[in-house]
Design a protein that fits this description.
mainly alpha; 10 helices
Length: 256
């Protein structure tokens, strides 16, 4: 795991180190402070994604926790593709913002959202359709499809507000991104605890959806004031339709 992180970083940094570029300069204390905030925000957001597994294990039976863990890991395939697209856009976003070209930045965000939405639609349909086959070969303990379905609106929500985290960090607001991530984790924790008696394991999905929207909407409002348009009505409509389809699908599934 360490090598998989360090080696790509060295390869990416090598051209910057050996070439003299106009943007290369000696690090200042501002660079150090912001890099620390940026790194902390990134690590916090990654760790927050595992809180749901801890909470499921603490609140529900080991069978439920195991079934949920399988579905959560399958759903991470969607998140992995989202992460690749966001990482690809990050240096481009920095360039646009450094040049003060908000028009190009907003155009880039729109293209990014289109690619993320397409990937979420394709991967969601593929995983859900393939789930019965996986369960047939790996046994009934492989997972519960309702747990998988309830996680899908989270990824549609992140897709419709795609680029919020990148835009905040690359515009010098990594501290804001860190605050929103922490507030989102707290919101999820409280909602899951509050509704677990009423909704059972589905409270985890409910908490994830609302906490994810908390971060996305909050960041979008802050960015909109600076002329950065993260989402639009068509994206919000797609999210609402996806959520409605998810609720309809859950109505025809049985949670064990």
């Amino acid at each position: 795991l360490g090598a998989s992180v360090v080696l790509p970083a060295i390869i990416a940094a090598f051209p910057i180190i050996i070439e003299k570029t106009k943007t290369w300069h000696v690090f200042t204390m501002w660079d150090v402070r912001y890099a620390s905030t940026y790194g902390t925000s990134m690590l916090a957001s990654q760790q927050i994604h595992g809180i749901d597994l801890v909470l499921v294990g603490a609140l529900f039976s080991s069978e439920t926790a195991g079934a949920y863990a399988v579905c959560a890991r399958l759903a991470l395939l969607i998140s992995f593709v989202q992460l690749i697209l966001l990482r690809k856009f990050t240096p481009v976003a920095g360039k646009f913002l450094a040049n003060g070209d908000l028009t190009a930045f907003n155009d880039g965000l729109r293209d990014l959202k289109a690619w993320i939405l397409a990937s979420v639609l394709f991967l969601s349909a593929t995983i859900v359709l393939a789930f019965p086959a996986f369960k047939h070969f790996l046994g009934p303990e492989f997972g519960v499809i309702a747990y998988l379905i309830m996680l899908l609106p989270v990824f549609f929500g992140r897709a419709c507000f795609g680029g919020v985290d990148v835009a905040l960090k690359m515009s010098g607001k990594a501290g804001t991104a860190l605050f929103l991530s922490s507030a989102s984790a707290t919101t999820f924790f409280l909602l899951a605890l509050l509704f677990q008696g009423l909704m059972g394991p589905l409270s985890i999905g409910f908490g994830l959806i609302l906490s994810s929207l908390f971060t996305s909407v909050g960041g979008s409002v802050l960015l909109y004031r600076r002329g950065i348009h993260v989402t639009d009505m068509s994206s919000i409509a797609i999210f609402l339709v996806a959520s409605a389809v998810t609720l309809a699908a859950l109505a025809f599934t049985e949670v064990t």
